[in-house]
Recover the amino acids of this structure.
């Protein structure tokens, strides 16, 4: 059929992550394009009009052209998502999402005849409430009718996309983004009732990194979120056993010494005697219950709290292994061994450095989680780290769009299928 | 408004009664393809729900088909033809069927020159014939210009195909060819150097699927969705 052939050439993936928006058509290759999920609302003035800046919101790579003072950023720079969700009435956030989507599709809109719009597959957090689906479909409808950019659209949960990208039909996907971590069992389809979420993600690791910087005398730098993130990625470590790692650091201070030079500046960050705190950054994501974190909570760092978004509770203090166990144990007993046998970790939050001289002390996420699960009595566990976690969701979107027949229409009961905007 | 399936059924009946048989159809795409012996006819259907852009797209597709020597028909609601007229269709030899809730009428013939004249219309005086001939000459000249433009497009298409064949032969013969930034201009886009470093060449051929699609059990699983 023409429709199938057309669809397979114009499938377009959109991964709306809390930090980044990843997008691109099936023809782009193995990796999507990536821009920060944010928008800038410039001041509307005659000057801006003369300069051709008439858009209400600027997104994508152009945002950097507008970054000004910190005070201005607070009011004009909008990061639309918090923990993978957008508030229902947050109109500016939805405008950013619409403009990002328009930008992405327009970049790849082909010239010439025969183009009838993209088959867009969007991925949202497994915990995204229904109103987000409804609002996103409304945006797609507007982009379809106003600019002919969209033929049909569908929305899938991010963990399903990860499972698809990894070619696993029975598995547990642990997707850890900036704001939260979702644990979702998959058995040929998402097992929606078994999703368990944590109110911790990369943002939590950033928070503890900022506290560590303050304690080391870099309180002024701790306010800059992007710098804190870079410091985290550069010096953060994940200990196999936190107690052992701290002891090792105290006995071998030179081995764990943490120095970070900010590229392109004169700034050098040296944690000095506090270098052992590098281990806290990774540990905090996996298990914030160690007593050492209490001192940070007492000094004002917010303790991750349980929050309810829609029908889903995001646990603040549950450790990663317990979260997986709770999720798997909501599934049929017969299925549980298959799920433990394939635990996929996805999201940049699972990428931790393992310096050769700290082997056995600082470990990868797979080793850490396997150890944590074994300690809780789960045997025969296989944990794998997505080789390119930042792209997995987008890839899953592309496979989904490629494979699902064009005639399979969206239904709200199943929460899947194509929402058609054109015949 | 009549359901699209009903409209399709009536239109199919119309051509079936004239010796054609439907060989392919798509409600979503809005077309029916017929055959009668070696003659092939494609009918594109526009209904009340179609937008202006869709109408324009269908007309352009039909014009392309006609220019390529195919028999092409459009089916339109009767109210729509009164708004847009039939002049352009006659010029481009695109057949037009109009339909309403009760009937289907062939307004412009697409297979040999237009609606058959009724008896009273044959008595035309010479002056009127001259006027019509002049008008026809003018229309033919415009048509020739349009066909020349189409020929130019066709020539460009042939050249691109020849270049692609040469490129593939070079690749097969082991010659190392620097991959162009984009072989498919329709997918060209600007981007920062950093982004380009992450992005493999675009415009992959249809058969060159990304690695994450190859041997993926989800493809057969998802394709069974109904």
């Amino acid at each position: 059929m023409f429709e199938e052939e057309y669809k397979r050439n114009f499938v377009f993936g959109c991964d709306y992550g809390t930090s980044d928006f990843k997008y691109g058509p099936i023809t782009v290759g193995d990796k999507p394009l990536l821009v920060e999920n944010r928008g800038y609302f410039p001041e509307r003035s005659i000057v801006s009009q003369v300069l051709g800046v008439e858009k209400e919101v600027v997104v994508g790579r152009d945002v950097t052209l507008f970054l000004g003072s910190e005070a201005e950023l607070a009011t004009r720079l909008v990061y639309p998502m918090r923990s993978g969700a957008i508030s229902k009435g947050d109109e500016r956030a939805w405008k950013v999402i619409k403009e990002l989507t328009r930008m992405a599709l327009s970049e790849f809109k082909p010239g010439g005849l025969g183009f009838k719009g993209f088959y867009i597959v969007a991925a949202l957090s497994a915990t995204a409430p229904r109103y987000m689906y409804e609002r996103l479909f409304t945006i797609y409808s507007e982009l379809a009718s106003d600019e002919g950019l969209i033929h049909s659209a569908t929305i899938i949960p991010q963990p399903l996309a990860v499972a698809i990208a990894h070619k696993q039909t029975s598995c547990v996907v642990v997707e850890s983004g900036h704001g939260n971590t979702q644990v979702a069992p998959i058995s040929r389809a998402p097992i929606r009732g078994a999703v368990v979420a944590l109110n911790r993600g990369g943002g939590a690791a950033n928070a503890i990194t900022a506290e560590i910087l303050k304690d080391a005398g870099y309180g002024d730098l701790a306010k800059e979120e992007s710098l804190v993130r870079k410091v985290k990625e550069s010096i953060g470590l994940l200990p196999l056993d936190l107690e052992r790692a701290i002891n090792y650091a105290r006995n071998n201070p030179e081995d764990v010494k943490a120095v970070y030079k900010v590229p392109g500046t004169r700034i050098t960050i040296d944690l000095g005697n506090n270098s052992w705190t590098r281990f806290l950054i990774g540990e905090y994501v996996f298990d914030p219950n160690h007593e050492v974190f209490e001192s940070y909570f007492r000094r004002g760092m917010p303790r991750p709290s349980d929050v309810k978004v829609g029908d889903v509770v995001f646990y603040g203090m549950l450790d990663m292994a317990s979260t997986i166990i709770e999720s798997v144990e909501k599934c049929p007993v017969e299925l549980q061994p298959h799920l433990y046998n394939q635990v996929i970790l996805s999201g940049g939050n699972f990428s931790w450095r393992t310096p050769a001289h700290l082997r056995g002390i600082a470990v990868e996420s797979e080793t850490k989680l396997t150890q944590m699960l074994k300690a809780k009595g789960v045997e025969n566990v296989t944990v794998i780290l997505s080789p390119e976690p930042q792209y997995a969701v987008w890839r899953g979107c592309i496979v989904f769009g490629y494979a699902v027949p064009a005639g399979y229409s969206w239904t709200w009961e199943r929460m899947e299928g194509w929402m058609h905007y054109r015949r | 408004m009549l359901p699209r399936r009903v409209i399709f059924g009536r239109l199919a009946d119309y051509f079936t009664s004239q010796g054609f048989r439907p060989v392919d159809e798509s409600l979503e795409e809005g077309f029916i393809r017929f055959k009668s012996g070696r003659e092939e006819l494609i009918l594109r259907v526009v209904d009340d729900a179609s937008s202006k852009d869709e109408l324009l797209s269908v007309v352009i597709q039909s014009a392309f088909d006609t220019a390529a020597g195919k028999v092409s028909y459009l089916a339109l609601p009767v109210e729509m033809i009164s708004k847009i007229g039939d002049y352009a269709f006659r010029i481009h030899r695109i057949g037009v069927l109009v339909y309403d809730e009760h009937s289907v009428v062939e307004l412009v013939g697409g297979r040999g020159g237009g609606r058959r004249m009724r008896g009273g219309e044959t008595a035309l005086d010479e002056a009127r014939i001259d006027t019509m001939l002049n008008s026809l000459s003018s229309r033919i000249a415009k048509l020739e210009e349009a066909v020349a433009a189409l020929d130019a497009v066709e020539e460009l298409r042939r050249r691109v195909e020849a270049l692609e064949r040469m490129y593939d032969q070079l690749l097969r013969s082991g010659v190392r060819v620097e991959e162009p930034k984009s072989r498919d201009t329709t997918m060209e886009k600007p981007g920062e150097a950093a982004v380009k470093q992450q992005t493999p060449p675009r415009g992959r051929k249809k058969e060159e699927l990304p690695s994450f699609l190859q041997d993926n059990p989800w493809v057969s699983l998802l394709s069974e969705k109904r």
Observations:
- Chain A touches chain B through 47 residues (CB under 8 Å).
- Chain A has a mean pLDDT of 89.
- The first helix of chain A runs from residue 2 to 9.
